[in-house]
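Here is a typical protein record:
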Amino acid sequence: MKENPKILIVDDDQGFVQALQAALQTKSCQVAIAGDRKQAEKQVSLQEPDVIILGPIAPRGDAFLFHQWLKHTSSFRYVSLMVVNAPPEKQLLRGWRLEEGMQMDAEDFLSKPVDPLALVPRILNLIARGEAKKIRVLIVDDHAVVRDGIRAILALQKDIQVVGEAADGKAAVELAVKFVPDVVLMDIVMPVMDGLEATREIRRSCEATKVLVLTQFDDRENVRASREAGAIGFVPKAAASSRLLTGIRAVAVGDGFAPSEVN
């Protein structure tokens, strides 16, 4: 597990919050606190937490609104979330409504009363699971400025981890065998070994690894050849970061991805 993971506790019960904060700090966690929805949104943007503990906040319904904001904000939608509902006797006044609960997207859910000490192992498990589910990406391009730009974009994503970089196809194959990434982001025209041959080698050596090829806008012939080599995704080099990210996430789960300009 990563050192000094960041935890955000969103709850207006000060006694519960202080007890949980103290328990987490004994495990070297960095803990931030928010007592309402606006504070919570601000803290998420400032702290970029690894896990959020979302308890009851006033007014009723604001916990759900924060949840919705979180899941519809691309930078934070993959942050692990634990929802701690109000006690059963208070749920009609402070708890999640039935229709809200049906839309809940959280890795863990429980209701108070709960011992803050008992939550710590569950929170640490969420952190470990969050790290394990990250999409591991190998960047391959012979231009350092391109690699730097892609790495900067991917570094902002909670669900993506760059495991290595290569400047030619031969190095890409070696790193793919070493790290077995989920996705290789592959350029085609490179020295030593081109991206097509590297794709074939990676697909032979690392069956679980998917290849997403970087293309030019008029690169239809290379797209065809890349498909034959085993690539399942294609994204233009000039693509906006959102399409690059969409392509990586689609390819990681085995879905093909090809914007219209490279079909």
Summary: Residues 197 and 229 are 7 Å apart (CA to CA).
